[in-house]
Structure formats: C-alpha cells, structure tokens
Amino acid sequence: MKIEITTPDSTIYEGDITLAQLPGLDGMFEVLNNHAPLIAALKKGKIKIIDTKKNVSFFDVKGGVVEVLKNKIQVLAE
C-alpha cells in the first residue's frame, strides 16, 4: 500500500508501507492493506507508519484530513 503525507510546504513522506496509525478526531485508528474507502479528519498528534522493511517512523501533525482509496493513503496535514 502507498502513502503520501503532504503539508502546505512540501511532501514529507512518500512510499510503500504495511501499516499507518493516524490520530482521528475520535481517537487513533489504523489502516492496513485493502482497507475500505475512508475520509477522516485528523487532530493534533503523531502519525505512525511501518514501511515494507519494518522500519517505524513518526510524523507530528497539528491536524488535517486523510483519504484512503484503493490501497493509497493521502494525508493532507498541517
């Protein structure tokens, strides 16, 4: 599955991952391969991703929106 995390200034991460954990308005949620289509608002927190080589990365966000569609995650973050 692919992810792209974009801020108003630049794209801060783009690549293939196995898991994304995101700070939704109602709590943390995870997105795995073949997830159902989803659009959700994000609150301040950390995005956790695990790439295909099992490396774990964290990205701080102040809020934003995420779209999940056809194994592609698009995060528009502050």
Provide a descriptive summary of the structure in words.
The protein is globular. The model has no long low-confidence stretch (mean pLDDT 96). A hairpin with a 4-residue loop joins strand 5 and strand 6. 22% of the residues are buried. Strands 1, 2, 3, 4, 5, 6, 7 and 8 form an 8-stranded mixed β-sheet that branches. It has one domain: ATP Synthase, domain 1, CATH 2.60.15.10. The N and C termini lie far apart (23 Å). It is built from no helices and 8 strands. With 78 residues, it is mostly beta strands.
Q: Key features?
A:
single chain, 78 residues, mainly beta, ATP Synthase, domain 1, eight-stranded mixed sheet, globular
Helix content class: under 10%
Rg estimate, integer Å? 11 Å
Tally of DSSP β-strands: 8
The tally of structural domains comes to 1
Per CATH, the class reads Mainly Beta
Oligomer: single chain
Structure class: mainly beta
Largest sheet: 8 strands, mixed
Stretches where pLDDT is under 50 for at least 5 consecutive residues are none
Helices and strands, in N-to-C order?
EEEEEEEE
Strand content: over 45%
Query: In CATH, what is the homologous superfamily?
Result: F0F1 ATP synthase delta/epsilon subunit, N-terminal
Outline of this structure?
This protein has 78 residues and is mainly β. The chain has strands at 2-6, 11-24, 27-32, 38-42, 45-51, 56-61, 64-69, 72-77. The protein has a single domain, classed as ATP Synthase, domain 1.
Give the SSE layout.
Blueprint: E1 2-6, E2 11-24, E3 27-32, E4 38-42, E5 45-51, E6 56-61, E7 64-69, E8 72-77
Parallel strand pairs: 1-8
Antiparallel strand pairs: 1-2, 2-3, 2-5, 4-7, 5-6, 7-8
